[in-house]
Design goal:
This protein is 76% helix and 0% strand. By secondary structure, it is mostly helical. The longest helix is centred in the middle third of the chain and has 71 residues. It starts with a helix and ends in a 25-residue tail after the last helix.
Amino acid sequence: MRITPLDIRRQRFKRVMRGYDPSEVEAFLEMLAEAWEETSEELESARKELEVLRARASDFDRMEGAVREVLVKQQKSAEQAREDAEKQAELIIMDAEVKAANLLNEAKERVQVLTETVRELQDKRLAVLSQIRSFIDSQEKLVDMEENRIKSEKVPKEERLPEEEDGDGPVLELSEL
């Protein structure tokens, strides 16, 4: 199930006596929605940048192929003027390989940076989910404690009215309300 910031903002809880402060719950949900939205936007931005860099790396691969084709043509023409062509081809090959290696290294470094950014964003998402889970667990413990407290407040048999049965709760006087 994919949760969006809008889902968080639209979430409503049932109101009960002794419940949570609605403004605190709404403030927390808004803060959570903003954090989730920011994280989602950062992840999407990183993904788009990664796509652009992959496209550039692909272009560099094609450029390298084109450079290699030029070198082959140079070698064929070098057969006619062997000495001059060999020197020229060596210079072109070295230059093309250095440029191709530099371009590939730059692209690989950028891809690595983007990959690390994506991993960091994933770690942030996991941390937010862990915080949400912790909050839910703590609230569940509070509910359990309240249930146990209510169960412990049952009136002992010897203090019950004669017509009162086991499942009946304590009868409160009007003054106690």
